Amino acid sequence: DMGAITANKLVPMLSVDDIEKTVNYYVDGLGFRKKSEWIKDGRLRWCMLEYEGGAAIMAQEHDPESGPEGKRGDGMTMYVMCDDAPSFYKMVIGRGIEANEPFIGNGMHVVDLIDPDGYRISFESPTDEPDTH
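Request: output the structure for the sequence above.
Response:
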């Protein structure tokens, strides 16, 4: 029976090279908040970062002995549906974060960013304006 469960949130786990840099980017830069963390040997190793409204990611520092090889971030884009992508753009630019100027595609304002590990993240909000992209 496919109707037996509901799921209301998908939380990607990012393997990162420097978790402190990741936390600074997502918290100080993009406006996420640290909801929980795992500290081992006095160092942050994993954390859950959440946005007002529920969008969330987990980050774990890459362990060269057990983690995946290759460049972080390849092949994945995270899309965050929000209420006002143009205002988000102004906020993050004011914090020194690099982001593409908002464009309109498929009825959405779109702001594209790339985090310190190369993960792509796109904040989008609905609009009635015609596509620009």
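The helical segments are 19-29, 85-94.
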